[in-house]
Amino acid sequence: MNSTFRQGVWLFVVWTTLSSSLEANEVENGVSDERILFGQSAAFSGPAAQLGTDMKRGIEAAFHEINRRGGVHGRRLELVSLDDAYEPEAAIANTLYLINEARVFALIGAVGTPTSRSAAPVAAEANIPYIAPFTGAAFLRDPNWNIVINLRASYNQETEEMVARLTGDLGIKRIAVMYQDDSFGRAGYHGARRALERRGMEAVAVGLYPRNTTAVKTALLDLRMADPEAVILVGAYEPVATFIAWARHIGLDPVFITISFVGSNALARQLGPAGAGVYVTQVVPFPTDDYFPAASAYRRALSAFDPDAAPGFVSFEGYLAGRLAIAALQRCGAEVKRTSFLNSLRSTKMVDIDGLKLQYGSNDNQGSDAVYLTTIGRDGRYYPIDTLEEAEP
User: Fold this and answer.
1) Do 342 and 259 belong to one domain?
2) What is the pLDDT of residues 69-97, one digit of tens each?
3) 230-234 vs 175-180, strand pairing mode
4) Domain span at residue 60?
5) Radius of gyration of the chain from Cα atoms?
6) Rounded to 5°, angle at Cα 244 from 317 and 137
7) pLDDT by residue (tens digit) across 295-313?
């Protein structure tokens, strides 16, 4: 059975199930007296599958939490999710289906830059809100995207923090970059290159690999020849883990630092003992840190929704995405429209999610600028750190 046929069968099954539950007074924009329907196209298969799974789990935990309290103005929130396998063509097909057939109110929690680059114009054409995509791509920060509401810091901000820490904390001069050969990887690479240029530096070597593969050996050999002191990695968890494991196997052991999109929990599992000392920048607070009440609320909601799920950065971001959508809906009042939903965020100076403050404005569609540092310890667990000089536990 080929992938196209499987996708068609999956869409038919989802739509058949969805159709059977549509209320008679359902309106075209996904809002009825009883519910509000959101849609998600994300990776649920392939090398980035854990990212989609965790984003979905976090969003659903937030929706489950509010639904147990009676919903938003009496309406329960529901999510229909479709697998795009982290491929742009599938993301377009899914987005068209969610808008034209499932008739969702808004799209939420998309995963990836290449998929968002393809799907966001489809959403814009239909004037459908595109909420909290799991990507830091600069193009989505353009204020002309009036349907886009970003939650997280950008890749430019993450890579700036990486280079600042490598050079400032550790005094490293020889930095290489390995990235995924698509719009996501190039976004991270360009951010790293600009951060280096601001310091009068350039990458000592650059390696790349094809999306949705673990074909990283050529990139590894390219970087090995330059003998870097540090490598910035821009990719998903499987190829990044493969790169690090192979590098250490052949005796190349620089400082490895990777970007939030990698999928932290999945990366640590993939690496096992080889993960000790790897650094990861994050764009949400530490999920088990009680300094932010939002983290405590997330863990309670996750446990109530899926008692077997382990807390993690990606599902925490999904939960915050769900909470952001809830906050906007609560401000809309009983009469929910897409325009008022978007305006409730873009025209509001601050959104406070249990102590986590998101700042928006008429020309600012990104809520958070925060970048956090973490490292994998010898026990395979993540630890928050303030500088790269801190030794891993």
Assistant:
1) no
2) 999 999 999 999 999 999 999 999 999 99
3) parallel
4) 3-153+290-359
5) 21
6) 40
7) 999 999 999 999 999 999 9
What's the CA gap between 349 and 364, in Å, rounded?
10
Q: Is the dihedral of CA 237, 6, 120, 183 positive or negative?
A: positive
pLDDT in tens, 238-282: 999 999 999 999 999 999 999 999 989 899 999 998 899 999 999
Does residue 80 share a domain with residue 15?
yes
Residues 172 and 118 in one domain: no
Write the CA distances from 254 to 60, 82, 165, 339, integer angstroms.
39, 39, 15, 49
Reduce the DSSP state of residue 234 to 3 states and report it.
strand
Rounded to whole angstroms, the Cα distance separating 386 from 388 reads 7
Strands 279-282 and 372-376: antiparallel
Number of domains the chain is built from: 2
Residue 111 tokens, joined: 């995963």
Which residue in the block uniquely carries the two structure tokens 């250490």?
248
- Let me know whether 146 and 160 are in one domain: no
Q: Which amino acid is at 324?
A: L
Residues 256 and 312 in one domain: no
Residue 115 domain-assigned (yes or no) = yes
Model-level pTM greater than 0.85?
yes
Beta bridge partners of 169: none
Distance from C-alpha of 297 to C-alpha of 299, rounded to nearest angstrom: 6
Q: Is 338 in contact with 105 (CB distance < 8 Å)?
A: yes
Please say whether the beta carbons of 114 and 184 come within 8 A. Answer: yes
Token pair recorded at residue 11: 């869409």
Both tokens assigned to 261: 């999109």
Residues contacting residue 87 through CB under 8 Å, at least 6 positions apart: 46, 114, 115, 212
In the structure encoding, which two tokens stand for residue 366, read together?
């990104």
Which of 350, 369, 346 is CA-nearest to residue 358? 350
Q: In what helix (H) or strand (E) does residue 106 lie, and over which residues does it extend?
A: strand 106-108
